[in-house]
Design a protein that fits this description.
By secondary structure, the protein is an alpha+beta fold. The chain is built from eleven helices and nine strands.
């Protein structure tokens, strides 16, 4: 296969299959319906909820972390804000008990800022109960250190990612998913939002940002070069759209340098007529979903 065919197949392999997507959609609707019925007397499966996190941004490749917001009425915020101590924890416990009415046999946990539901097939949800603000951001509970309210603005992040993905011939989100495969293969200390933030910044100035799969070997090489040259002393970047601080988990530059060198070898092997050897180098970077 050609470079273009290899990377096209790789990107297809990273996408969740139709059955998995349908399971996620069904559970998302059931969670939404349960919360809406409890707090609004509504059977709607789609109102007052939002996919967020990597899945909401369209950059996720794993099913172990499907994030969603369930929007509760303002009266509920007032009720828990009036608590004398850690109303945030009480809110999470209440929403947890609501979800147990639907998912009594699933493992449900309340953990700091989210309610987690772990399903036996490995498709796990993290649910954030939140309240909509006038600017379309959300206020959500944080139970740590006695409890407080925090603000998040996922819609701006999703919109920014969608806009740049459209401007780059869908290359941005594919790059984000490829980088997650690298993270998994090489144990890179980067969160999903940090990958998306840095991919967003990189591709905005990349010379071939609107090209096809034919340039994905160069895109890989140039992205790893971009990452390896970032200042190791820098501790945060600003997320697309929202501008929130995205903190690093550790220095990823050495892993990026290794990947950069492997990408040079892969490109060299391809150029000199050794396509099989080239693919093995890409598999060292990206793992077994890259075609062999």
């Amino acid at each position: 296969m050609s470079v273009s065919e290899n990377f096209s197949t790789f990107c297809s392999n990273l996408r969740m299959d139709t059955d998995t997507v349908e399971k996620i959609r069904y559970r998302y609707k059931q969670i939404t319906k349960r919360v809406n019925w409890e707090y609004r007397g509504s059977n709607s499966e789609t109102s007052y909820s939002l996919y967020v996190g990597s899945y909401g941004r369209g950059t996720e490749i794993w099913t172990s972390d499907i994030d969603m917001i369930v929007q509760l009425p303002y009266a509920t915020y007032k009720r828990f804000n009036d608590y004398s101590g850690n109303g945030q924890s009480a809110l999470l416990q209440e929403v947890k008990s609501v979800l147990q009415k639907t998912y009594s046999t699933s493992h449900i946990k309340g953990d700091g800022q989210v309610i987690g539901i772990n399903f036996t097939d490995g498709i796990n949800f993290e649910i954030v109960p939140a309240f909509i603000n006038d600017d379309d951001s959300y206020t959500y509970p944080d139970t740590n250190n006695g409890g407080s309210w925090k603000v998040t603005d996922p819609k701006k992040e999703i919109n920014a990612m969608n806009a740049r993905n459209s401007d780059t011939n869908k290359n941005l989100k594919r790059l984000c998913r490829m980088a997650r495969a690298w993270k998994g293969q090489c144990d890179v200390p980067m969160s999903g939002i940090l990958i998306d933030t840095l991919a967003y910044q990189f591709i905005g100035n990349w010379a071939h940002k609107d090209k096809s799969y034919l340039y994905y070997d160069y895109m890989s090489r140039d992205f790893f070069e971009y990452l390896k040259n970032l200042d190791k002393e820098k501790s945060y970047w600003k997320a697309p759209g929202s501008g929130r601080y995205v903190w690093k988990k550790g220095n990823f530059q050495n892993k990026a340098n290794n990947a950069y060198n492997l990408s040079l070898e892969a490109i060299d092997k391809e150029t000199n007529g050794y396509p099989y050897s080239s693919k093995q180098k890409w598999r060292e970077i990206y793992g077994s979903k890259f075609p062999s």
